Amino acid sequence: MFCTKCGSTLPDGTKFCPYCGQKMDAPAAAPVPEAPAQSNPVPPVPEQNINVTPTPVPPQAAPVVNPIPTEPTPKKKSPVGIILTVLVLLLVAILGVGGFILWNTTKATTIHLNDYVTVSFEGYETLGTATLDMDYDAYGKALAKALKIKDSDYERLDTMEVLVSAKLQEIYNEFNNVKNMVTLTLSQSTNLSNGDEVTVHFNMDNETAKEHKVQFKGEDMTFTVSGLESIQIIDPFENLTAEFSGIAPNGTFSYQYDGNFQGINSYDFYADKTNGLSNGDVVTVTISTDDTYLLKQGCAVKSKTKEFTVTGLDHYVTDANDLTAEFIQYAKSEAEDSIVAYTANSYNENSKVKDLTYAGYFLLTKKEANGWGSFNEYYMIYKGTVTNTNFAFPDTVVYFPIKFTEVMATSNGVTSNREGNIIGTSQLGNNYHTNGYSNPLLCYIELASSKVDSYNVTAGDGMEVFANYSPIQSISDLSAESIQMLKDDTTTTLITKINADYDKEWHANNFEFYGLYLLTAKNQGNDFRSNNQIYVIYRARVSTDRKNDFEPTMVYYPVEYTGLVNLPNGEFMYSAKNGIIGNFTFSGHWWSTFGYNDQEDMYNDLISVKRDRYTYEVSLAQDELQSVEENTENTSEEATEEAQESTEESTEETTEESIEETTEETTESTEESSEEFSEADTELVTLTLTDAGVNKIQVIKEIRTITGLGLKDAKDLADNTPSVLLESISAEDAASYQEQLEALGATVTVE
After folding, report:
1. I need a labelling partner for 297 at 20 to 30 A (CA). Which of 10, 305, 344, 513 fits?
2. What mean pLDDT do residues 402-409 have?
């Protein structure tokens, strides 16, 4: 006989299929001869009603069992054999059912995800969208079956019963945990066109799923986009007109929409910024439209943003490279005209400016576009040497700044406002002053660096050297050249002052360098002018030819300089020269002079009274001079004078060989005699100075009187002996000049 469910061959009379458990309704078998009665009859085999889930078994897997013969055999069967046969069949049935149960409880159920997934497309060409669709009902039932969840329990998972039933909560949690072990993704879901391909990717956590006897399978699925409707792609910015106006960096942006697309209006556009603009800035305009409405009209926008670069604005100049050659030439011409006009109107007939040349520029631009003041300031700077033919002041190099404001680059070139006259003022000496700056560092401080809080500052064409300076804080910070410059300038200052204030009967003999006092502010500030000061001190023995005026006295002349700095190009500079410090009256007389006659008084006035605010350093020129820092007892006037005389006799004159003069070199030719002389009537000779002697200052004054030379030239002759003073002069004049010079201690020859 055969199983009606799985088709397996079974012995006749089998009530249950040992392979699938199907109950068999077999026909009655042919009568079998009645067996003899047995003394120990075998009890009938009870029916097996095993509740298992039938699983088809391939026929070839069934064991081979010989069928029971349907014909009676002459040989009688033994009751023992019948019993054994029944027991064997029963054992086979039990083993088959048990093996099936064991196999069914250990095997993981496979769920093929591809059976439940599809992708749909909708929308318009280039803007199509893909939607991942999954048959969650079928997938949920398959998963519930794999997890052995009863249909009745599965149907209740979406009801409120889950909240009150612990069993349903447990089933619900397991179901959702396993379901979440699968995630699906699309390679692309937007901006699709017909013919594009979209791929579904499966991500499965089978390592965890197998703990629930579930296995997922899914292979990537590719779908071709189709069915999208064609739309019109429009560029809304095609009809948007943008305009920039105003002056950078305060330019403005405006726009106007002139399109006729239904659903787009001017108020749909907005810009991220509309003012405070400069050339090169980027303005982004965004359109806010109802995409759904546009799609219903069969159209869509190509892009929702567009960038506009600011161009064409007139702009304030912020970089010197923006200045055109034409503007620079204009500024130079204006500066020259201003300086010439100023000197012609303000200088007297004895003063003038020579060697006027371009010195550089400052360009200041505001850090904030708004606020008080000009947006930019441009200073065109010239320099020239200011002179006076009467030697009322030394020749002085003066810097003349001319100011321009609101310098602007336009389509017609660079324009500006010209402001006022020459900026700044400087003292030249003896109550003479001029517009401009005799100190270029002070020019930079006042016009440029003092405004760095509000302006960006650029200096160029030579003026940039003054932008980086280092304050002098020690005498060692001064180079030998810098000290020599100070000494030369001090010598010139003293000679000029002595020549102006001392009459011919007063003499300053043995003029020599004494030393330096340097004071450095304890609190260094941004204004270099107050950070330090130095005193360059010379001394000379002052006497008079008039009897009973005053006794010969050693006078110390300190000249004060402030704001000493080193520049990056190796130059040294100071901000101001404050002249000779001190004044005293000669002992026992009413005559007075500038300077000091007492070292301790000078030290006290220049150093001691300032020690709460300054540190100090003293450098003396001669070792035999006793340090004035020591509190020595005052000696008698006679003893002091003897010590000074001794020092003078043992000290070689140290008047400096070169002095940087600041007065104009004006050589005048000697007036010729109104009478004509023949070579036969007059002997012409040469007057030569071979030694200036100890009274060099008086000798220089006399040389100027004799020759008509300027101070610098006269001093050069006195310093560089032997030197020819006059040539081709009469012997009588030469003898007169020789007498005058030798009376002052000089040595003169006539040849």
Report:
1. 305
2. 95
